Amino acid sequence: MKKILCLLLAMTMTFGCLTACGSKDTSDPADNGAATGSSESIEGAFKLGAVGPLTGDAAIYGQAVVNGAQIAVDEINASDSTVKFELNKQDDEADGEKSKNAYNNLMDWGMQILVGPTTSGAATAVAAQVYSDRTFMITPSGSSPDVIDGKDNVFQVCFSDPNQGTGAADYIAENMADAKIAIIYRNDDAYSQGIRDTFVEEAEAKGLEVVTEGTFTADTATDFTVQLTDAQSKGADLLFLPIYYQPASIILNQANAMGYAPTFFGVDGMDGILTLENFDTSLAEGVMLLTPFSADATDDLTKNFVAKYQEAYGEIPNQFAADAYDAVYVVKAAIEAAGCTADMSAADICEALVAAMPTLTYNGLTGQNMTWQATGEVSKAPMAVVIKDGVYTLPN
Amino acid sequence: MKINLRNKRTRTDFLTYAGVIIVFVVMSILQNQGAISRSLSGQLVPICAYVTMAISLNLTVGILGELSLGHAGFMSVGAFSGIIAAMSLQSAIPSDPVRLAVSMVLGAFFAAIAGFLVGTPVLRLRGDYLAIVTLAFGEIIKELVNCLLVGYDENGLHMMFNLNGQKTVSDLGLTENGIEIIKGAQGATSTTTIATFTAGFILVMVTLIVVLNLIRSRSGRAIMALRDNRIAAESVGINITKYKLMAFVTSAALAGAAGALYGLNMASLQATKFNFNTSILVLVFVVLGGLGNIWGSIIAATLLTVLPEMLRSFAEFRMLVYAIVLILVMLATNNPTMKLFFERIRTRFFKKPAKEVRGK
Amino acid sequence: MEFLSYLISGISLGSVYAIIALGYTMVYGIAKMLNFAHGDVIMVGGYISFCATTYLGLPAVVSILLAMAVCTVLGIVIEGLAYKPLRAAPSLAVLITAIGVSYLLQNSALLIWGAAAKSYTPIISGTLQLFGGKLSIQYISILTVIVCLVIMAGLTLFTSKSKMGKAMRACSEDKGAAQLMGINVNQTISVTFAIGSALAAVAGVLLCSYSPSLMPTTGSMPGIKAFTAAVFGGIGSIPGAFLGGILLGVIEALAKAYISMQLANAIVFAVLIVVLLVKPTGLLGKKVMEKV
């Protein structure tokens, strides 16, 4: 077995060289930055880090986040703004441990502001570290209240999960009060479970009737016929789906094959279903969802963003990309409001930005007049849309 | 020959202890001086946990010779019981290191119980059937923890199983100052991180002492006899169930302690972390380090934990490179020409006769 | 009536597991290795078929043949490059290599096809309505069961009647003795991989038709489930894989419907453990006599 040791030692030496470059060059960020996939170094630029799953199961969300952030950074750097950014994107595989590693790696690089992590679990793990390190963190999409809970320097761009749950229940109570509701959610996922919990609570308070609930896990996400049969047999005419669009597309397909056609009601995770390659959009006809972002919106900001995103990455952006894009602009606005400069330390920038955040009002892709509480929670109005002829339209 | 071999083994064992101590001292000094990158120092505790996992799995796979694909399940049991202990004993034991130690012991204890419960009926299966049952056990633990709701307040510990999906943590009926420890799928999200590198080092040392002494003892020889030839071992009166269970439960307990250390290093931890992939990851450490080779497990676990971080410069090709490295290492270490090559180097430089071939 | 619907869901899902399990069991029976990359070959099959129908506009049947061809080649290449050099190595080394291959395939797919899920168009759609619409069976489920039965019958015939099949059984019994009898063991194992991978392509198409969403990780969980199914039925046994797959699907569906959706997977695995404790070699597994 010594041979293995020899081999491993050889490997250590080879990769030791790599890390040596990685760790020694903290004083020379331009060099290291080029190696870790950041944009070109700019004199006097703020060092921005983006973290999300770029590989593995949740890669689609992380890639959207770093791509959205990249577009915003490129735009800002090309503009005549005095605030410039240098972006470094790191993979965390949606795992808390890897996410902390990615964060530490970015800190070695000299990161001053963190945009990320993308997923709630990873964001919560990193937020605790960020809080003790005093680094400013704004997560585009880590929507669990645990992410910001008790940490003054952590902010969210997306709706928090409870917000979405109550928002959806309120909307249903107002518009479809006598619906018989069935819920299908993913019970090993913090996002899905979080929304379901507050939805059920609010639905009870509003006197809505939830006839049945179905669950699934990552391991059983290929077949929903049992849950659908159950909902159908209990006479549910509204199916609430607080899940991401990928399993939702399977549910739509299988419900259609069963000949079961309730009203489907999703939340922001449902956004993206129309961009699913080769998806038969007629299946999504009539699906309602609460979303902060619509790629079909006709305002200039959205049109510009969608066009640039499509040009750069060849696909239509989803809300994760839009949240990240907004996050970068929010950071820029906060920096301008606080009057920070790029030579300040991460901790000083953090204190200045924490003070500036509650004073901001921001109009972005994912909401008008977005404001932040000191707790880190965003307040913006959710928008209910219904899919008609393959596009989002406002319900009448 | 026997005595000679034993001496050599004793020497190897002491070299192993010394190596681990030296690495710990060097790393601690460097860390105090701020000479190592944050990226590396952030990984020290997980590395200790993975090293312990690898050594303990080596006990099952390398020494006992039974393939286990559910080792992460024991880590999960240890992690969540450790977190519950640490969070609920906050007022009872204010000192962090003591509480960490207590939590790790409790984590080990509960994992050992799980190991006993799984091991008793299951160890009579063999080979791939045992592997699939341990895999099944890992999946079952994952699902159970996903349904677990735990909170703590001045009235004590509140625990509930969310079997039908209708319950939430608010059903626990916690009082004002209660803390929600585990919230089902959201996992443990408010853990105070008290794990330290020193604790990790102590855990690795304890693991080494336990495992090496077990291997070198009478029981250890009985366990290895079972691995090498079960029927022959049985015929000379070795109690199969007893020794199998001894190795299996020890292995589970150590994994539980590693889990507690790992869990108390993460502010947010979900049951899905300890899935099939984590079990496989640890198995890769063991196989790459060499079956039955404790030294190898330590080095392989360390290197393979650090490797993906070092590959960050490959950006999106990172995991692809990792996969290729994995395959190439397996091919290279099992290639007859390479084997001969290493053998020659070894005899030239160390001038020792070829040693026995381990594993099956 | 609901019970029947649940049962049918279970059988449909089970037949998808069964078809994957057949590939697993073939390879295990002859090469005695757990090919953890099998699930990812399924994913590749799904993507190839997807590309053929969506980008090239080919008809479904052609896309299946194309997927089978690509996967067969892929299987032979993987076997030749990664597994063949390890013929003499310990079985765990091969297991780890298979895991490496699985990572490799997943990450290659991520780079080639991107992380975004793709929606697969089922090869046949539509539903058979019975009892005035009270009971509906998807045509794809019926097709899967039929394909599964055909493959099982084909494989049984092949292994018992053809020359190559007999060589396979000989290899499975004793590689050394087979070699002495003039059987080319290496070639036989390669052929086994080729057949297993072609089956994986068919499984990929059926899996994606049943659950029409394709991602680089699509194959991994069904792969593990099918592996469980193969063990359930007795690994190495062809009818066992079929039986194991169907039972697994039915238990999963009924557990979801009547016991607990939260713990459906845990229940499946618990049943598996109980079955293995009672019959340690699976339902239809052969009892191997141990020699000293």
Structure, explained:
- The complex is a heterotrimer of chains A (396), B (360) and C (292).
- Chain A is an alpha/beta fold and 396 residues long.
- Helix content of chain A is 46%, strand content 18%.
- Chain A has helices spanning 2-24, 29-35, 59-78, 96-109, 120-133, 145-148, 161-175, 190-205, 225-233, 245-258, 300-313, 319-338, 346-356, and strands spanning 46-52, 85-91, 113-115, 136-139, 154-156, 180-186, 209-216, 238-241, 263-266, 288-291, 362-364, 367-372, 378-379, 383-388, 391-393.
- Chain B is mostly helical.
- Chain B has helices at 2-33, 38-41, 44-63, 71-88, 96-122, 127-146, 197-216, 218-228, 230-235, 240-263, 276-289, 294-310, 318-333, 336-350; strands at residues 148-153, 156-161, 179-183.
- A 3-stranded antiparallel sheet of chain B has the order 2-1-3.
- Chain C has helices at 2-31, 38-54, 60-83, 91-113, 139-161, 163-173, 175-180, 185-210, 220-233, 238-259, 264-278, and strands spanning 118-119, 127-130, 135-138, 213-214.
- In chain C, strand 2 (127-130) and strand 3 (135-138) form a beta hairpin.
- In chain C, helix 1 (2-31) runs antiparallel to helix 8.
- The mean pLDDT of chain C is 88.
- Chains A and B meet through helix 1, strand 2, helix 4, helix 5 and helix 8 of A and helix 2, helix 6, helix 12, helix 13 and helix 14 of B.
In a nutshell, what does this entry contain?
The complex is a heterotrimer of chains A (396), B (360) and C (292). Chain A is built from 13 helices and 15 strands.
